[in-house]
Amino acid sequence: MTEQGLSHARLNRDVLRTLTETGPVYWWALGLALAVSLVCFFLPWGYQLVAGVGVAGMNRPLVWGMYLSNFIFWIGLSHSGTLLSAVLHITGSPWRRAIYRSAEAMTLFSLMVAVLFVFVHVGRPWNIYWSLPYPNQRELWPNFRSPLLFDVTAITTYLTASFTFLFMGAMPDLAAARDGTTGWRKTLYTWLALGWRGTEREWHHLGWAYTFFAVLIIPLAVSVHSIVSWDFALSTVPGFHQTVFAPYFVVGAIYSGTAGIVTVMFLLRKLYHFEAYITEDHFDKLGRLLLVLSLLWTYINGLELFTGWYSGSSAELETLRYKLTGLYAPLYWAMLLFCAALPLVLTSSRVRHSFRSMLAISVLVNIGMYFERFLIIATSLPRKFLPNTWRDYLPTWVELAILLGSLAIFVSLFLIFVKLVPSLSIYEVKETLPHGKGADGEGPP
Amino acid sequence: MGDYLDKWKQYREPGFPGQLDYAWGLAVDLDRCTGCEACVVACQAENNLPIVGEKDVGEGREIQWLRIERYWEGEYPDLRLRFLPMLCQHCASAPCETVCPVAATYHNQDGLNVQVYNRCIGTRSCAAYCPYEVRYFNWRTPRWDPPLEQQLNPDVSVREMGVMEKCTFCIQRIRLAKDQAKDEGRRVGPDEVQPACVQSCPSQALRFGDRQAPDSAVSKASRSARAYAVLEELNTRPVITYLRKGEEHD
């Protein structure tokens, strides 16, 4: 960030302008996103609640289907947001400041959508609170040995921590918004800013608490996706039963999450004209990160194939055969193309510095990663141990509509968020401006 | 609190499953099985199994707590058909029991893997974990066309949409036998109870009994040289003993 002539006042204005000035494009986009959420998510889900999960394409060996793939996908996308922000905060990378607010929001919203899919997936969602350990008259507790219960615990913890981290980091900006707006917004931000005045003491506490949470978030983020992987790895199903699954899922999650950040940053930059704050430099660094992650991911994928083949067990070999040449083989090879082969072009500095090619790569990586999540379920469960029960799986229109609808929910939440919270960290970007410190004191160390 | 600790200690005692009240088990003699599926029909009638309809059967959602798997061997004309009756194996270390987040499936004091329909929230993870594919999900609300609803067994609950179900070894019959035995101040005899499938098997390929009694039919079967367990290598410790086809018949 070496932009000359950027004044603090202009930065304040630029960012707060995104809150108060709303063009027709925004309203169209929000209206469209909400309409798609309703038509593609909530109506089909309502239909499913009445008619039963039978309206989805699942069958006996394939009792898990696309809903769980979506769950893993959204959880995966939620990584990196907060994780990246926390890691970069601890390592003191200044370029984090322009992106971390939207990255953390992405975490929060994709987690919310993921949790929604748990409700869509189960047969009796109205009873789902039974999986929470609450005291009750019947002395019934959830099953603490169940990886699904680990999941409930890990995800609620991660959700709470991500929300707190995001909220805390946004507090000085909410105060800036409070001071720069009028009307109902002023009332809202007065509440949200929790009486932030920007004294030396407050900055000190914020800095301390922020670093504390950043340190806390890193093991949390790693644990969440490890635990999601145990939903699969703790079974004996060929294709699930792999010791490499925990790192595999964590790497995959950070991979797709980083790609998601690139996409969101590109859009924010275009839509909000943040050209001065989000630069080629950021894309270059994220591109390097993506390249490293893609290599790691490819390695673990090879490992997965190798252990399956090396086991020599007929069930594992059949699962491998089905994965590589069966019904979903085209998806498998497309996944390898998008997530293993294509990202290799990131070795070129020209590609990393081009916004358009970075956007294309990030979107394709996430499509490939969606295939991965889908294939984990759709190529493992159809080939379990007893050949008599083998059966293929085809999602129905309900499942496809709900997938599309979940995307719309995510976009709606994000669109609402960018109007409520400054999507660029004002106080921290100020620190990176020429002439040092911001007018309202120093940011967290 | 003391009560909890006592209960906990009781369950932690070594010697499982010797500590169980009974250890019900089943023996399947593949030499005798003709694949007639009388057991399948009997199970359907006894346990109020939902009739899912033609469309759902085509989509692989039929509910059959007990099914006869068919395996063809060889090439024409040297074809051979083998039957493998497959039902819940009531595994002593069952994968389905550990994965259920609400503990809707657990091992009871009779050594049975039981399913609590009212507790089930329908995550279907038990079925995903089950290597034998013997757990069946109610994808839709079960319906019986009149007058079929009149023939439902009053001793067995009818399951609702969104819950998992599976073979119970006709637990209603076991309960009845235990009640009678209690009134008479004795143990249930090792071969006293018969689930519907065992009762209806014309060739007596299925035998049911208490594995704790050394002279029960199932205990004898488990000592046979032909005894094996399906997918033994997964270490789920199933209680169903299969007796493989004798070589001389092949």
Describe this structure in words.
Residues 1-5 and 435-445 of chain A have low confidence and may be disordered. In chain A, α4 (81-90) packs antiparallel against α5, α6 (147-180) runs antiparallel to α8 (200-233) and α11 (314-325) crosses α12 (329-341). Chain A has 16 helices and no strands. The two termini of chain A are 19 Å apart. Chain A has a domain at 8-234 and 244-285 and 394-432. With 445 residues, chain A is mainly alpha-helical. Chain B is of the alpha+beta class and 250 residues long. Chain B has one domain: Alpha-Beta Plaits (2-Layer Sandwich), CATH 3.30.70. Chain B contains eight helices and ten strands. In chain B, the strands form four sheets. Chain B has a four-stranded mixed β-sheet with strand order 8-1-10-9. The model of chain B has no long low-confidence stretch (mean pLDDT 89). Chain A binds chain B through residues 51-54, 57-64, 121-125, 127-128, 130-131, 140-143, 145-149, 152, 231, 234-237, 381, 384-389, 391, and chain B through 56, 59-62, 69-71, 84, 86, 95, 98-103, 119-125, 127-129, 131-133, 135-141, 161-164, 231, 234, 236.
